[in-house]
Design goal:
Helix 1 packs parallel to helix 4 and helix 2 packs across helix 6. The protein is an alpha/beta fold and 274 residues long. Helices cover 26% and strands 27% of the residues.
Length: 274
């Protein structure tokens, strides 16, 4: 369905590989979740991917599948389109999910990881909506939203381990070499993925709190035994509902707490004139 006007929604969710196999949120069949409509939008960066507007306990949520990535569109443009729509919708609370490769030995397959910092080794550095803001990346992931994700996992699956640490961003669409993984480990990385950047920058640019939860789907190359494609496939299909439930329950949480994320976006000083 095409739609000219962008709906208003305070909350957003960026779907990744861990919910890709779902028709989210419909496949979860939850009585307090209602899909309202699906639509794409024209943006200054091209036609957006399809968004789904749904409600959770009467709270409106706008979501997009697989980071907006699709054939024929660069990942940079996909991110611009997605976040332009979020900005127009008024999204201020934003969750994301995905799959990561683990470097640390204590992070086993199918465990969850909630990052508190990142290292950007991608080449997608110059991805922005405008030149209006100076972005301070002191606390890139909202600590309040991160706590909500951790508490949600503990409530739904108390035996599931939740790791914390540094998410290292690479470009893909391939996995890293063994030498690259050794370098990343020396830099202080705990897991490797492809999606936190530029999303963490764009979330700050639009003034939204941002946090992510990631499923360990493989061992980084050269770390322990080689991962098997069959297990990756099993995780891809059989853990999707678990991740979907975590996201829905996190979205249900009504925030009464405040954070400092809104203070970390400043007007740029690089302006012509005064």
């Amino acid at each position: 369905m095409d739609r000219v006007s962008i709906p208003t929604a305070d909350k957003g969710f960026i779907g990744g590989s861990s919910t890709f196999s779902l028709n989210f949120p419909d496949d979860l069949c939850l009585p307090y979740v209602k899909t309202i409509e699906r639509a794409g939008f024209d943006t200054p960066f091209g036609r957006s991917p399809e968004f789904t507007l749904f409600s959770v306990d009467e709270q409106l949520v706008l979501t997009v599948k697989m980071h907006g990535w699709r054939e024929g569109i660069s990942r940079a443009d996909a991110s611009r389109q997605v976040f332009w729509v979020f900005e127009q919708a008024g999204v201020k609370t934003l969750f994301a999910e995905g799959g990561v490769g683990s470097i640390r030995n204590d992070l086993a397959m199918r465990q969850f990881f909630v990052p508190d910092d990142y290292i950007d080794l991608s080449l997608r550095k110059d991805v922005r909506l405008s030149d209006r803001y100076l972005l301070i990346m002191r606390d890139p992931f909202c600590p309040k939203l991160t706590s909500i994700l951790q508490e949600t996992v503990s409530g739904l699956d108390p035996d599931r381990h939740i790791g914390k640490g540094v998410y290292v961003v690479t470009d893909g669409r391939h996995f890293e070499s063994c030498a690259e993984v050794r370098m990343i480990e020396k830099l202080g990385g705990d897991v490797i993925g492809q999606t936190v950047c530029p999303e963490v920058y764009l979330a700050r640019e639009i003034g939204a709190c941002y946090a992510g939860i990631y499923l360990v789907v493989n061992r980084a190359e050269g770390v322990g035994e080689d991962w098997e494609h069959e297990e990756l496939t099993d995780i891809f299909f059989n853990e999707a509902s678990t991740m979907g439930r975590i996201i829905i329950e996190a979205l249900r949480t009504k925030r009464s707490m405040t954070c400092n994320c809104g203070t970390l976006r400043k007007e740029t000083l690089l302006k012509d004139g005064r």
